[in-house]
Design goal:
Blueprint: E1 4-10, E2 16-18, E3 24-37, E4 43-53, H1 54-63, E5 69-82, E6 88-103
Parallel strand pairs: 4-6
Antiparallel strand pairs: 1-3, 1-5, 2-3, 3-4, 5-6
Length: 115
């Protein structure tokens, strides 16, 4: 079974891409804190690339902003491609199946239009 659940904060605002095939995609980097401190006593984070498609992509780009905490459920996907120099590159990413809004970046912050 390939099932992943991540809780973290958005490292940047989601940007919606629309394709001629009517598909929509958003690529996000989710900063997920580790559950232990490093030698300096700081919690580090892993920045995990996540791909959102269609309705999930549209909602994330509309309602989520940098710093927002979200919970994401999805699956791990690996793929490979050749770069401009014909070197084979490997990518591991999460394909989102659902996201849940956990909290805004700052208490009291709104994501609607300016007042």
């Amino acid at each position: 079974m390939n099932n992943v659940i991540l809780v973290g904060r958005l490292a940047a605002d989601p940007i919606l891409e629309e394709f001629e095939t009517n598909k929509k995609r958003t690529v996000i980097d989710l900063a997920v804190p580790r559950n232990y401190k490093n030698q300096e006593g700081i919690y580090e984070a892993d920045f995990i690339r996540c791909i959102l498609w269609n309705g999930i992509a549209l909602n994330a780009s509309k309602y989520c902003k940098i710093g927002d905490a979200i919970a994401l459920r999805g699956r791990i996907q690996t793929r490979s491609y050749e770069d401009e120099s014909q070197n084979k590159k490997y990518v591991t990413e999460i394909i989102a199946q659902s996201i849940n809004f956990v909290a805004p970046k700052y208490k009291g912050e709104t994501h609607g239009e300016d007042k």
